[in-house]
Amino acid sequence: QSALTQPPSASGSPGQSVTISCTGTSSDVGGYDYVSWYQQHPGKAPKLMIYEVNKRPSGVPDRFSGSKSGNTASLTVSGLQAQDEADYYCSSYVVNNNYVFGTGTKVSVL
Amino acid sequence: EVQLVESGGGLVQPGGSLRLSCVVSGFTFSSHWMSWVRQAPGEGLEWVANIKQDGSETYYVDSVKGRFTISRDNAKNSLYLQMNSLRAEDTAVYYCARNELTAFDIWGQGTMVTVSS
């Protein structure tokens, strides 16, 4: 199972929006509405930000939103803040209770 | 407070074995699928294995099949990962994580495994 493809980096100024893509295949992203997104600050454990493509866990700001079209999912961070600077990973369910993560995107707030 | 605490990491020689543990508190452990996820130094996340609530089903990423075994003891609120025939490429921080709604919603702080001679 190959990792999902994400851009290595993305950036934006405070208050702006940034969108990260996550491209897979019809066997993972395109086959299920089970895409999730994680934020990871340096030296810390990942934190769930989005699940089932576009749902936010309790406590996650509504500045974070998710979507999917075909084999590509996206995470949008609106109203960028300094604390949003982190690595972001997508993940998808794959057949037979397997999972695959994306390659990761480093988001910088300029 | 919901908490997952991993232990058991360390330095091991290639071909050696290590057993990781994850003790859970703050939620009903026996009601959830659980997973191990690893992250090599400077690299991305990789799902390693997961296990059903009663331990009757287990799944693994291809690269660890036949070498790693995931298990659980619901009476002890504990998740385990037995790692045998370790290779340099298994060097990583290993996280235990709770599975909820096909996502990993709660994570431990991780334990470092280094495979080197």
Describe this protein with a few key phrases.
heterodimer; A: 110 residues; six-stranded mixed sheet; 9 strands; B: 117 residues; mainly beta; seven-stranded mixed sheet; four-stranded antiparallel sheet; 0% helix
Brief digest:
The complex is a heterodimer of chains A (110) and B (117). Chain A is built from no helices and nine strands.
Q: Based on Cα principal axes, name the global outline of chain A.
A: globular
Distance between the termini of chain A: 35 Å
The proportion of strand residues of chain A reads over 45%
The total of beta strands of chain B comes to: 11
Structural class of chain B: mainly beta
Structural class per helix/strand content of chain A? mainly beta
Shape of chain B: globular
**Oligomeric state as shown:** heterodimer
Q: What letter string, H or E per element, gives the SSE order of chain B?
A: EEEEEEEEEEE
Q: Rg of chain B, please?
A: 13 Å
Range of helix content of chain B: under 10%
Kindly report the average pLDDT value of chain A: 97
Which two chains touch over the largest interface? A-B, 27 and 23 residues
Alpha carbon gap, first and last residue of chain B: 39 Å
Number of helices of chain B: 0
Q: Main β-sheet of chain B: number of strands, strand sense, barrel status?
A: 7 strands, mixed
The number of helical runs of chain A is 0
Share of helix of chain A, binned: under 10%
* Count of beta strands of chain A: 9
